[in-house]
Each structure stands twice: as C-alpha cells, then as structure tokens.
Amino acid sequence: MPLTVPAEWAPHSAMWIGFPSHEDLWEDNLVPAQKEVADLALALAGPGDERVRLMVCGDAGEAAARRLIDGAAGVEIVRGYFGDIWLRDTGPIFTVADDALSAQAFQFNGWGGKYALEHDDMVAEQIAAASGVHRIENPFVLEGGALDHDGFGSVLTTRQCLLNRNRNPGWDRAAAETALAGALGARAVIWLEDGLLNDHTDGHVDNLARFVAPGVVACPVGMGTDDPNTDVYGDAARRLSSLKDGRGVALQVNRIPSPGLIAGPDGEPVPASHMNFLIANGAVIMPMYEDRCSALALDALQSVFPERRVIGLPSNALLSGGGSFHCISQQEPAL
Predict the structure, then answer these.
(1) CB–CB of 309/283 below 8 Å?
(2) Which of 161, 219, 293, 327 is catalytic?
(3) How many Å apart are CA 279 and CA 288, to the nearest integer?
(4) Which of 76, 87, 153, 245 is deepest in the core (most CB within 10 A)?
C-alpha cells in the first residue's frame, strides 16, 4: 500500500480529544467549554462507536474531566502536556504505508506566531508514544486543520494558509506540493483561495470544505444577506465544481447551510462553521452555535452521510477559543 492519509470516514481505532484545562486561557468560558467537550466525548463513545482518548493537562483539568465523564464506558482520560486543546493542529497526522501506521509530526509555530504556548510542540510526540506508533519528524510547519484528505491521495487546502509567509517563508505551490507528497503521500493538491473572515488560523480548510466521500466535497452556502462569508463560500464551490480529484474524477459539490452571521462580544464576525464536523465510526458530530440554520445544516449533512447518524451539539464556548470539534480532535486510523 502506498503512503497515504486514510479518509476520516475510514475505521478508527481511537479518537483523540483535547480537554480545556487552563483557566488563564479560557477564563469565564472554561466550565462551559469543558461541558461541551465532555458532551462530545460521550457522543463519540456512544452512538459514535469510538474509543475516546481524552487528553487532559494538570490536576484540575483531570478532576473536571472525571466529574463530567463519570466513568463512562469508552472514554479514557490520558494525562499529558499541552498549551491548549487544538490537537488537530498540534498533534500528528497518521499515515499508512505497507500496512504500517506512522505518526507524521510537523513543526508548530502557533499559527504563524500568533499564539505560542508552552508544550504545544510536545503534543505530537506524546500522542504517538501513547498510541505506540512510530513518529516521523518533518522539517516544516504544518497544521492538520489546513488539510483535508480523501484517502486516495487527494488533499484540500487553501492558499491563504498553506502559502502564508508566516508558516514556511519561500514556499510556493510547487514546494508545498512536494512537501505534502513526501510526508503524506499527496498525489493531488486541490487549491482553494481564502478561508473564513477573522479566522486566526489564516484560512484552515476544515472550516471551509471537507471531503465526505470519494470525489464528493461539502462546502457551505451563505445564509442571510448579512453572512460575511457568502463570497468566500461561492468562490470555493465554483473552484471545486471545475476540478478533479487525484483519480481524475470530477468533484461533486454538496452545499451545506452556513450558520450565517455569528458575532463575537466585540460585534465582529467570528469563524463559526458547520464544516468543523467530526466523522466518527458510527456518527457525524456537527457543531451548533445557537444559529438559525442548524436544523437545515443537520438535514443537509444527514443526506450526505446516510449510513451514519448526524448529531448536533452546542459549540459556543469552544468557538470563543477560535475553533470547534474538528479542531480539538485527531483520529487514529485502524489497520
């Protein structure tokens, strides 16, 4: 088997989740965020049919996790060190080659130097060791949320993030594609332009477009005349509709209602996205933001994933930290 990143809908042996553990980072949103993550873990372990490995940091974080999980079957609490919970970006990306699993680790610079937190550069090493998987260090900056994979070597990404000078200065499209081919077995990179407005990740694709099946990509459609990302969604959908995957198959695009305008405490739009859903073994968990379009988005996603139960869970407190369910997770593929 050639080197590849299994698709997220392929079977998992475990799902890693970061648990909010630092009061100085989350402040008044710490307890609500902990509840949202605990609810996610319980849904993953129940209808999601996952072995959940909930990574906590410190005594207070562990105690809070144990109170909320209360010994639920399928959820294992794992002590570790991290700056914050965004394991999609700080953890490894698991690859398969010749029926062997590897944990590809990358340099992490706090999303271009915005948030440099102690221990975030240790997360990939800890997850690989706890999983008993060989770790491979790659000498360039990359976050898992910047990419999405179809299991056949096709990779979705955005120019805004992957070619940003604050990650790998001097990278152009050819250099990025060569790096992804070497580390992840990428055989076709599908380039989109910008990500969501005010996204501190500089346009992570897991808020914008996601593979949901071979040759099929889900992408938002703007909702309401005040949706700040309508043009971004439209541009992404048009580009995707004109492209092919690495097998030469024309991409099919399914539009999922966006949350519309979600404003932060300062009144500015925040990067809320139903695209930050998490595909589990037996379910799909979609974030909701008290938005008026959640029911429509759930129905649309259910039509995309007829073989899985689609579950909506609140993610308002997590959004205050800049992300949601996909951002705090990393799947460990089953061989």
Answers:
(1) yes
(2) 327
(3) 15
(4) 87
Encoded tokens for 55 = 């990574």
Write the pLDDT tens digit of every residue in 139-188. Answer: 999 999 999 999 999 999 999 999 999 999 999 999 999 999 999 999 99
CA angle 9, 15, 21 (to 5 degrees): 140
Match 């080659």 to its residue by tokens: 97
Are 273 and 286 in contact, with CB atoms under 8 Å apart? Answer: no
Q: How are beta strands 329-333 and 12-18 bridged, if at all?
A: antiparallel
Amino acid identity at 333: P
CA distance 6 to 230: 31
The pair of three-digit structure tokens given for residue 7, joined into one six-digit string? 């698709």
Provide Rg for the chain, Cα atoms: 18
3-state secondary structure (DSSP) of residue 323: coil
Give pLDDT tens digits for 183-241.
999 999 999 999 999 999 999 999 999 999 999 999 999 999 999 999 999 999 999 99
Residue owning tokens 């005349």: 225
Active site residue 219: no
Helix (H) or strand (E) holding 90: helix 87-90
The token duo for 209 is: 């477009």
**φ, ψ of residue 160 in degrees (nearest 5):** -55, -40
Tokens representing residue 138 in the block? 């790659």
Q: Which domains does the chain have, with CATH numbers?
A: 12-333 (3.75.10.10)
| Tokens linked to 276 | 């930050």
Task: Judge whether residue 94 has pLDDT over 80.
Answer: yes
